[in-house]
Design a protein that fits this description.
This protein is an alpha/beta fold. The protein has 14 helices and 18 strands.
Length: about 450
């Protein structure tokens, strides 16, 4: 079945334009409620959101959809995505929903759905929901006596803060550390500074004044410049940047340099290896993670398993093969001992734990390997499948031959836009530039033909 609504991370698009409209959101609530109605008990969904203005509209529509098919709704308000996943399990809900477009600008929004186990839905379950979206569901509405109830849940923030704090050893605290945290004017604007302060850190907060429009705007994990400057200004020990729904994190060291997800995975993996906490001797990442990470892990006796892009695919591979550490270069870090999805705050706390234990500066702790030169280019196309065209196929094959074992290429269509993403990495930066230029040129010529 062709996926019409669901992408790599739920349903996402421009708010109040197809498919992120109130009528579709209501029907998503109806369809998801019907798919997860299993048994005779009162069914429940927990709904969280980030700080976008459109969140009110989508939340109200979802509530109408779920209650119309007899599902009770617990509204959490603005909370991180991992909090929704955790509370879905903690509150014994049948479904969890996060209203967010993650790192996108305020004018976008999305709907992420979790099953009762707190994991994102499989392709098969998403297909079930999509099939219902194309049907007339009026005959499957609940009777007046069986309509769902909706109420706001108090204390959701406190429960998540306590959960995050408990991921650290009881004897470890952050006293003596000055931490700058940039919440991106997003979902973690209350919980992240609070958790860090309660753990003993001196906290300087950025991006904690959301107004519905400023989420991810010149702040957060996709725009860490302000955080870098603030870390240097206040002479902080570390900077932590979260994205709009706080499921990803970027670290800034005490010198104001950015540390990406690949380095963070290396830090956690090596620390957990020494503590015998790795369930499997290796980690899971996507095809976009740097070759330098793979080589570094091999040097300490660990493997790197790669999946296609999307943290859900990382999680699926982790679950299937028993890994408990995985993630993406972008800062989605999944630590399945604690969470079922990426958790920016918990990942940052694990890094802080290593920093405190080793009593070394972040710049030293988080510089585990020298990244291999990497280039990422996006090429827009109009229609068809550019990757199937002969001129493009020949350019890609020629590029792989030139790089040989000293590099690699990942060429894939975007899951959300009409773009071909061309990524390459190699020890020889000049050769890599030539190879990428040749492939991009072939794609451009193909698009113009």
């Amino acid at each position: 079945m062709t996926r019409k609504f669901f992408g790599t991370d739920g349903i996402r698009g421009r708010a109040n334009a197809w498919p992120i409209t109130p009528d579709l959101a209501m029907k998503v609530g109806m369809a998801a409620g019907l798919v997860f109605t299993r048994g005779q008990h009162r069914h429940r969904v927990v709904i969280g959101k980030d700080t976008r203005l459109s969140g009110y509209m989508i939340e109200t529509a979802l509530v109408a959809g779920f209650t119309s098919v007899g599902v009770d709704v617990a509204q959490l308000g603005p909370v991180p995505t991992p909090a929704v996943a955790m509370l879905t399990r903690s509150l014994r809900a049948d479904i969890g929903v996060m209203i967010s477009a993650s790192h996108n600008p305020f004018h976008d929004n999305g709907i992420k759905i979790f099953g009762p186990d707190g994991f994102k839905l499989s392709d098969e379950v998403e297909a079930e929901i999509e099939a219902l979206l194309g049907e007339d569901l009026s005959r499957r509405l609940a009777s007046p006596a069986k309509l769902g109830r909706a109420k706001r849940i108090d204390g959701a923030h406190d429960r998540y803060v306590e959960f995050a704090k408990r991921t650290l050893p009881r004897v470890l605290n952050l006293e003596g550390m000055r931490v700058v945290v940039d919440c991106g004017n997003g979902a973690a604007y209350k919980v992240a500074p609070e958790a860090l302060w309660e753990l003993g850190a001196e906290v300087v907060s950025l991006g904690v004044q959301p107004d519905g429009f400023n989420i991810n705007k010149d702040c957060g994990s996709t725009a860490p410049e302000a955080l870098c400057n603030k870390v240097r200004e206040v002479r902080a020990d570390i900077g932590i940047a979260l994205d709009g729904d706080a499921d990803r994190v970027i670290i800034v060291d005490e010198k104001g340099a950015v540390v990406d997800g690949d380095q963070l995975m290396a830090v956690v993996a090596e620390s957990w290896q020494k503590e015998n906490r790795l369930a499997v001797p290796g980690i899971v990442a996507t095809v976009m993670s740097n070759l330098g990470l793979e080589r570094y892990l091999a040097g300490i006796g660990l493997t790197l398993e790669r999946t296609k892009v999307g943290d859900r695919y990382v999680v699926e591979h982790m679950r299937a093969h028993g890994y408990n550490v995985g993630g993406e270069q972008s800062g989605h870090i999944i630590l399945s001992d604690f969470s079922t999805t990426g958790d920016g705050l918990v990942s940052a706390l694990q890094v802080l734990s290593v920093v405190k234990t080793l009593d070394q500066p972040v710049s030293q702790v988080c510089s585990r390997f020298e990244p291999v030169p990497q280039i990422l280019r996006n090429v827009r196309y109009r229609d068809g499948d550019p990757l199937a065209r002969d001129v493009v196929v020949k350019a890609i094959d020629a590029g792989r031959d030139k790089l040989g074992r000293a590099g690699r290429l990942v060429i894939r269509p975007s899951g959300t836009e009409p773009l071909i993403r061309v990524m390459g990495e190699a020890d020889d930066a000049q050769l890599l530039n030539t190879v990428i230029d040749d492939i991009v040129d072939a794609l451009d010529r193909s698009a113009a033909a």
